[in-house]
Design brief:
- With about 210 residues, the protein is mainly alpha-helical.
- It is built from eleven helices and no strands.
- Helix 2 packs parallel to helix 4 and helix 3 packs antiparallel against helix 4.
- The radius of gyration is 19 Å and the shape is elongated.
- The termini are far apart.
């Protein structure tokens, strides 16, 4: 009954809204205390589904993890669930949805392809660190590139870690939040964007230096 309640609570039509999470916060916390292992497994499974199906609201679900689990456990659950879901979405794009995605996102696909061709892993790392670029779109477009699955996995997991920790930590104060803007302030967005650009800038500087020295 507890697992059924948690699923029913998490999956109403508006389940990925901040108000819904705050409304059911106490009941979910009580369930987690009663069934810690089962609730963690259920949270992981639902997170994978949300990521794999590109359902909007993964950021809010990460907040929920911050209020339900200790920070270290939330990092483990979200990091692996989000990466597994992202990889499944990428593979679905590569082998099932290729034609439709090429038609709908042809302009973005061209940009991503050019970036990966010229900068490889650095470009994907930068995209993952920039909150302004939708994560679900990265998953879909990456499926149409030549990027290997193993490489895609470890780059995604590493690059998504900073935002994961930020949102999980914010979830510990869920009751005080009024919108996602309370978490990703302009300063935080700017800092994450700079962090994402750092590998590309470093690569460019090294290439310029070695090119000029030869």
């Amino acid at each position: 009954m507890g697992a059924f309640f948690m699923i029913r609570t998490l999956l109403p039509p508006d389940f990925l809204s901040l108000e819904s999470l705050k409304t059911h916060q106490r009941a979910l916390q009580e369930y987690v205390q009663q069934a810690p292992a089962g609730s963690a497994a259920l949270y992981f499974a639902v997170y994978v589904v949300i990521s794999a199906l590109s359902i909007p609201g993964a950021a809010l679900f990460t907040l929920l993890g911050g209020t339900l689990f200790p920070l270290w456990q939330g990092v483990l659950l979200v990091s692996f669930a989000s990466t597994l879901g992202a990889t499944l979405a990428m593979l679905t794009s590569r082998y099932i949805l290729r034609d439709g995605i090429q038609r709908r996102f042809s302009r973005q696909l061209k940009t991503v392809n050019e970036g990966i061709d010229s900068n490889g892993a650095f470009y994907l790392f930068a995209l993952r660190l920039m909150p302004l670029f939708p994560f679900f779109l990265i998953n879909l477009l990456a499926g149409l590139t030549a990027l290997g699955v193993r490489r895609y996995w470890w780059i995604s997991q590493l690059a998504m870690l900073p935002a994961t920790v930020i949102f999980l930590n914010a979830g510990r104060e869920l009751g005080k939040l009024t919108s996602l803007r309370d978490i990703l302030s302009p300063g935080m967005l700017f800092a994450l964007t700079l962090l994402g650009l750092l590998p590309l800038v470093t690569r460019w500087l090294f290439s310029r230096y070695f090119h000029s020295s030869h």
